[in-house]
């Protein structure tokens, strides 16, 4: 079947779903809701829960763009953050997202409420200190089911129409069975232009590169929950996604040209089975979960350059994760509760090289290897309130055991780490009706095993740059302290934080020993990474139609470490500014405009030069809010330039491709049936890829 035929078939299926949904809800009430007048937000020691039904800023946005208007949440370099730390886990209706692009395709108007937890919990085996976001979608107005289908296309400067996607999401209930279905095929065809240079004593080498990226993918998630009664349910969820990536990188240096072409097929699957039961009248509950995740990566590469004629290599890389959890929640009284549980997670990763034709240039790892890991965790915690003070405190014991086996040659390595990790969070509301609050938190954590970087696999980005893993890596341990004050019901928020890391991971730059024009990066551990940060956030609504949010974050990063024979002893300064505006007008019109700026900053051997951008959207709804047109645009942008230093030389990489774009999305909402409550299952696994980010 051709690509166009596939697109038409998928679009036809989604269209039929829309028609059937529209017929079933002819007598239902309109999609629009009156704005909730009561306070939307309930504060806890761990964060807050906010009711977003009827919120005006949800309109015309996907979930990921609407979340940035919540207190303490921001979107930086396409990554969601809470108080400046990367979000560790995101759930939608209790389903953990392995592929967060799902948030780009769920319309924010389907959100019922959001819970934001500032730090990862003691029951979580997470590689991030950052917290989690729990999203609950709206119940269908008259039950049964509700959802949306959409199609979008984006045209970029110098690329034309290069991004196309379809998506559909529906949730609901029939009898005792709840269901959730999400599907999203997409196609991408974009070119990326880069300038590179190598500056040494008395010399400079300049080269240009263009990468032609062609990707087609489809993701699907389906979940079923059966309610045995009011207090017991069994849930199952299955997720599958496949992507075919065909990048071709061409590098030009003087009269020579080098080409690296790849055909990379990635298949990801996740399955979850969860049992929840309330055990007695006091509310003691049991949750048992088994979660499995597999990622398979098949890659075939071809190389052409001066001296290498028609070299081809292939490999298979497979990662399996299996985790079991048992958790108890025990209410003590109306103000206090205790939680306890345990989990065991196993990791198995296999690399198998395939056939190689052409010259043996040592381009990638040609020996098979296995990586195995085991991570048990036991925890106990308590939460509640003493007077006005709200608390959450817990302790976990976690062990990381990793084994790297090169199979045919080399030394098998084993590494075992364990830690006792306390977490304490306090929140005290004050002022009339608790409109102000102060908080204090401490957390110690042992990161997950960086299994994706524990290998000898060589990954080429272009003909002059590659990265390689490090079997000797250790997991990072961290102390984190955070204090904050929130004034006038989230009008102004101030957060100060400090962290200190042992075995922090940095990507050191090296010069290839066989070819002095080639450089590579390798992850290494170092001690003494620390940072002091202050974050200020302003949330205002100057007029009824306009919601504004401004964030500024400043950090001081003292350095006292030697890496690669170079001692770094400076105090680095980094600052970021973000402005978000949401506008809502009459007759179904609205939009948003966002801007961000990150001035130049230094980190160890690297210099990250200034980046900034301005983007926005305009939307219009029709047919009682069932049909929506959305116009996305980015008129202003400056992309990243990165400098790396090694052996007295500076290697610079500058992304020169313009980011200006215009995109159009058409979305149709549908629903029908009776008003019901939907419980959906939780997935636990997450594939964590430790890689050099440029």
3D architecture notes:
The chain is mainly beta and 694 residues long. It has one domain (3-357, 370-672): TonB-dependent receptor, beta-barrel domain (Maltoporin, Chain A). Helix content is 4%, strand content 65%. The protein contains 2 helices and 42 strands. The strands form 5 sheets. The chain has a 27-stranded antiparallel β-sheet that branches. The chain has a 6-stranded mixed β-sheet with strand order 1-2-8-9-6-7, with no helix packed on it. Strands 24-25-29-28 form a 4-stranded mixed β-sheet, with no helix packed on it. A hairpin with a 4-residue loop joins strand 26 and strand 27. The longest helix is centred in the first third of the chain and has 22 residues, at 3-24. It is globular, with a radius of gyration of 26 Å. The chain starts with a helix and ends in a 22-residue tail after the last strand. The relative contact order is 0.15. Residues 1-38 and 675-690 have low confidence and may be disordered.
């Amino acid at each position: 079947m051709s690509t166009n035929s596939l697109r038409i078939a998928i679009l036809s299926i989604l269209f039929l779903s829309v028609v059937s949904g529209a017929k079933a809800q002819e007598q239902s009430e309109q999609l629009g809701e009156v704005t909730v007048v009561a306070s939307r937000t309930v504060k806890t020691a761990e964060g807050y829960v906010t009711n977003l039904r009827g919120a005006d800023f949800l309109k015309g946005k996907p979930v990921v763009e609407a979340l940035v208007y919540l207190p303490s949440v921001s979107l930086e370099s396409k990554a969601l953050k809470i108080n400046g730390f990367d979000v560790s886990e995101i759930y939608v209706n209790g389903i953990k997202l392995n592929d967060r692009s799902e948030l780009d395709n769920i319309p924010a108007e389907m959100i019922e409420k959001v819970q934001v937890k500032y730090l990862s919990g003691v029951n979580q085996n997470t590689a991030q200190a950052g917290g989690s976001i729990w999203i609950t979608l709206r119940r269908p107005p008259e039950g049964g089911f509700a959802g949306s289908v959409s199609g979008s296309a984006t045209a970029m400067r110098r690329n034309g129409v290069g991004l196309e996607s379809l998506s559909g999401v529906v949730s609901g209930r029939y009898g005792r069975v709840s269901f959730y279905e999400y599907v999203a095929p997409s196609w991408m065809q974009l070119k990326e232009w880069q300038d590179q240079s190598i500056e040494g004593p008395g010399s400079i080498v300049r080269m240009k590169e263009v990468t032609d990226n062609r990707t087609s993918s489809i993701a699907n998630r389906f979940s079923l929950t059966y309610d045995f009664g009011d207090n017991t349910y069994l849930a199952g969820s299955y997720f599958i996604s496949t992507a075919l990536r065909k990048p071709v990188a061409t590098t030009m240096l003087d009269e020579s040209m080098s080409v690296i072409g790849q055909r990379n097929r990635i298949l990801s699957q996740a399955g979850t089975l969860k049992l929840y039961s309330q055990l007695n009248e006091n509310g003691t509950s049991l949750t048992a979960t088994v979660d499995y995740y597999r990622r398979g990566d098949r890659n075939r590469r071809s190389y052409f350059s001066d001296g290498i004629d028609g070299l081809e290599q292939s490999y298979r890389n497979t990662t399996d994760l299996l985790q079991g959890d048992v958790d108890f929640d025990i209410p003590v009284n109306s103000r206090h509760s205790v939680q306890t549980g345990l989990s065991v997670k196993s990791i198995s990763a296999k690399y198998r090289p395939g056939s190689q034709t052409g010259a043996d240039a040592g381009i990638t790892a040609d020996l098979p290897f296995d990586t195995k890991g085991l991570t048990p965790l036991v925890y106990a915690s308590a939460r509640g309130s003493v007077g006005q003070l709200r608390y959450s405190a817990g302790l976990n014991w976690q062990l990381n055991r990793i084994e790297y086996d090169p199979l045919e040659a080399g030394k098998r390595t084993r590494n075992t780490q364990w830690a006792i990790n306390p977490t304490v969070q306090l929140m005290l509301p004050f002022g009339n009706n608790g409109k102000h609050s102060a908080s204090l938190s401490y957390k110690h954590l042992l990161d997950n095993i960086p299994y994706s970087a524990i290998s000898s696999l060589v990954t080429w980005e272009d003909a002059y740059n590659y990265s390689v893993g490090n079997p000797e890596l250790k997991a990072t341990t961290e102390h984190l302290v955070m204090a904050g004050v929130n004034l006038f019901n989230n009008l102004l928020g101030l957060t100060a934080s400090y962290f200190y890391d042992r075995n922090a991971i940095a990507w050191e730059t090296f010069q290839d020993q066989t070819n002095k024009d080639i450089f590579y990066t390798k992850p290494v551990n170092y001690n003494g990474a620390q940072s002091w940060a202050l974050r200020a956030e302003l949330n205002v609504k100057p007029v009824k139609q306009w919601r504004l949010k401004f964030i500024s974050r400043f950090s001081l990063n003292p350095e006292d470490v030697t890496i690669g024979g170079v001692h770094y002893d400076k105090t680095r300064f980094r600052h970021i500014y973000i402005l978000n505006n949401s506008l809502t007008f009459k007759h179904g019109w609205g939009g948003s405009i966002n801007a961000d700026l990150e001035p130049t900053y230094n980190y160890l051997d690297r210099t990250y030069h200034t980046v900034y951008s301005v983007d926005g959207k305009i939307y219009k709804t029709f047919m009682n809010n069932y049909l929506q047109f959305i116009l996305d645009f980015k008129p202003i942008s400056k992309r990243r330039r990165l400098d790396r230093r090694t052996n007295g030389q500076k290697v610079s990489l500058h992304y020169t491709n313009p980011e200006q774009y215009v995109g159009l999305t058409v979305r149709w909402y549908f629903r029908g049936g009776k008003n019901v409550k939907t419980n959906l299952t939780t997935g636990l696994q997450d594939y964590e890829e430790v890689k050099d980010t440029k």
